[in-house]
Amino acid sequence: MRLHNKVALITGAGAGIGEATAELFVKEGAKVLVADRDGALAERVAARLGDSALACTADVSKAAEVQAMVELCVARFGGLDVLVNNAGFGCLGTVETLEEDAWDALMAVDLKGVFLCSKYAVPHLRRRGSSSIINMASTISVVGIKDRAAYVAAKGGVAALTRAMALDHAVDGIRVNSVAPGVIASSYYDRMFEQVPDPVAFKKGLEARSPINRMGQPVEIATMMLWLASDEASFATGAMFTVDGGFTAW
Fold first, then answer.
1. Which of 23, 92, 166, 211 could bond to 176 as cystine, CB 3.0-4.6 Å?
2. Where is pLDDT greater, at 93 or 187?
3. Active-site residue, 151 included
4. pTM
C-alpha cells in the first residue's frame, strides 16, 4: 500500500489518464478526490472506486471553483498530500489558423489551471510536511509538433512552471515534478480523430511516432504518477519524467 493514509486530488479524473491514476491510487491505499469539469464522468469514476473516492465538479480555469474543490477535499478527507494537475485538452491549429478564443480557452485550462490548483493546494500540502505535486506535461514540451501551436506552448509552460514551483516550495517539503507522456489512447485523441479527414491514417501516424509502434495506455502513465506520489520518490523534484515509448529517442 504505497499511498496508505495519503490523500490525493486529481483533476481531469473522469476519463483517460486521470481515471487510471485515481483507480491505481485507491488500490494503493489513498483517499482520492475525483475532480472533472464533467460532473457525470467524475461521479461515475468515484462510484466505481467506492468509499475511498469522492466526486467533484470543477473547472480548473475558475479560481472560485478551484478553491471550493480543494476545500472540499480537505474537509472530507482531513488534509491533502498529493495534487495531480492532470486536466487539459488539445486543439489543432497554427498561430495563423488558430482563433484567439481557442488559444485563450486552452491556456486557461492547460496552464492557468495548473497555477490555480497549485495556488490553493500549497497551503494544505505544506501542512503535511512531505507532499507532492505532479503536473501533466508532454513530450511536445521539448520536441514540438506541427499544427498544435497552443498545446505545445501550454505544455512547455507547464514544464517550466514545474521547475519554478520545485525551487519555490522545496523548503515547504513539497516535491514538484511533471510527467511527459507520449501518445496515449484516450478521449483526447478520440476527439482529434473526429476533427481530421482520415482518422485511420492519423492513428497510424500517431503509432509510428515511437519505436514501440503503438499508442500507450493510461495505466502506463498512472504507474509513473504512483511512484512520484509515493515516498519512494523522496529525492525527486523539479524534473520531467518522460514515458513515451521512445518517441524522444529518435
1. 166
2. 93
3. yes
4. 0.95
